[in-house]
């Protein structure tokens, strides 16, 4: 990470605030032979991820730059049973202005120069979010297909996707049927995700594996590959509702599959850790993982997202500390 220097803030200021989506992943025909050789050495995975936060240090201006970049990769999310349209609209305001103007000014940024990667909501609130974000370029992501369990009838799942796209969602976060993974029915998983992708039309498809339910790393690797073969534009760790959500171990396995898929097809697939990524320190660890495993392109929102809500508040606190030398109370950085 030699570019993480005191010039990082200057480099970030020259970057476009709203990069376009990456080119779509067209997918490939199902080929079970791609899965036959997939094995995961759990101990090796643990050894690799244990070094991510210890071998490299990102400090001062470089850390501020990386954290500002992390903000542009956040899918700012509210997926609660007590969500209201008012809460969603406040969340959209925060997505437009995720960092206080005085902090941005102290860092040399204009007020409109930083925004989150997307806003993620249930279908019910897609139209309100699209209206609240009009003109900002910030896409709306809708969770779909019976989120979070994914056990709705298949035809209903397809109609839900189509309804969210009709309301203006530019991204659809689908949940796969875990049973297909747990029983090794890879063809059924492929066919399901393929139909989800067709229902998305021009909207980008993010496939949620719910890795806390799958558990076995080799099955997570196979499920990742099958979803990409079926045309997923992103693969995502979790719904945020499982007992265990995003971890660095699971993420390493998934990004290695993204790398293998790129080597086989040339297609670039994005990655989204979701659930449990709530501190600036953890965000930096994921950014380091992406940089070292996949390269600089995977530090941009078209190929990397955090599914998070409280993460933004902690990043803003760290930026205030960088500017003032003091930590502020968490409640001074509300999300919505």
Automatic annotation (TrEMBL):
Protein name: Deoxyribose-phosphate aldolase
Superkingdom of this protein's organism: Bacteria
Keyword Lyase annotated: yes
UniProt xrefs under CDD domains: DeoC
Family: Belongs to the DeoC/FbaB aldolase family. DeoC type 2 subfamily.
NCBIfam families: deoC
Catalytic activity: 2-deoxy-D-ribose 5-phosphate = D-glyceraldehyde 3-phosphate + acetaldehyde
Any Pfam family: DeoC
SMART domains cross-referenced by the UniProt entry: DeoC (SM01133)
Pathway(s) per entry: Carbohydrate degradation; 2-deoxy-D-ribose 1-phosphate degradation; D-glyceraldehyde 3-phosphate and acetaldehyde from 2-deoxy-alpha-D-ribose 1-phosphate: step 2/2
Keywords annotated in UniProt: Lyase, Schiff base
Lineage summary: Bacteria, Pseudomonadati, Pseudomonadota, Betaproteobacteria, Burkholderiales
GO CC field: cytoplasm
Single biological process term from Gene Ontology: deoxyribonucleotide catabolic process
Entry EC number(s): 4.1.2.4
Xref: InterPro entries: Aldolase_TIM (IPR013785), DeoC (IPR011343), DeoC/FbaB/LacD_aldolase (IPR002915)
The keyword Lyase belongs to this UniProt entry's keyword annotation: yes
Molecular function GO labels: deoxyribose-phosphate aldolase activity
Species this chain originates from: Paraburkholderia lycopersici
